[in-house]
Specification:
The chain is globular, with a radius of gyration of 18 Å. It is mainly alpha-helical. It has helices at residues 2-14, 16-33, 37-47, 53-61, 66-96, 100-129, 135-155, 160-178, 182-203.
Amino acid sequence: EPFRWAVSRVVVLAVPGVILTALVVAVVVHVGTGISLGSGLLVGAMVCATDPASVVATFRRVAAPDRLRTLVEGESLLNDGTSLVIFVVALRIVTGGLGAADAAAVFVTTLTLSILIGGVLGFVTVQVLRTIDDHVLEATITIACAYGAAVVADALGESGIVATAVAGLVVGTYGRRVALSVATEQALDEVWEVGAFVLAALLF
C-alpha cells in the first residue's frame, strides 16, 4: 500500500528530479571552471544520485512515517539507473559530438526500452510464480529475474540497472497480489533484505 501511494512521487523524483539536478550541476561547473557543458554533465551525472542509507537509518531511529521511508527508498531504486543513463549520454556528447536533440532522444529511448525490458521480464516471472508453491524455488526465480533483467538489458545496449529495478517492482507489487502466498512473501522479504544488506556492505 505505501509503495502504490509513492509510485508517482518516486518517478518524479527519480527521473525529472535527477535530470534537473544533473543539469544544474553541469551549468554550475561550466560557469565556475570553464569546461564544456558536456563535461559538466558528466560531473552532474556522477553526483546527482543520492544514497539513502544514512537517511533511512535516521528515519528508523526517530520513527518517521512509513510513507516517507518508502518514498526515499523507492526513489533510490531508480535514481541510480537514471544517473547512469545520463552519464552514458553525456559521455557520448563529449566523445562523439552528440547534439542536444540527439542526446535527449538517446536518453528517452534508453530509459523507455530499459523499462520495457524490466516490465516484460517481471510480468513473465510473475506468471511463472503463479504455477509454483515452493518458497525456496520462488526466491531463486526472483533472483534469476533480477540478474536476467540486467544481463538482457546490457546485452541490448540498454540500462541493466533500470531494467532490474522495474522487474523487481513488478514482481514486488503485481506479483504480491496475484502469485505469492503469505509464507512466500515473508521468505522473499527476508532473502532480499539480507541480499540488500550484503550488497550495501560490499559497496561501502
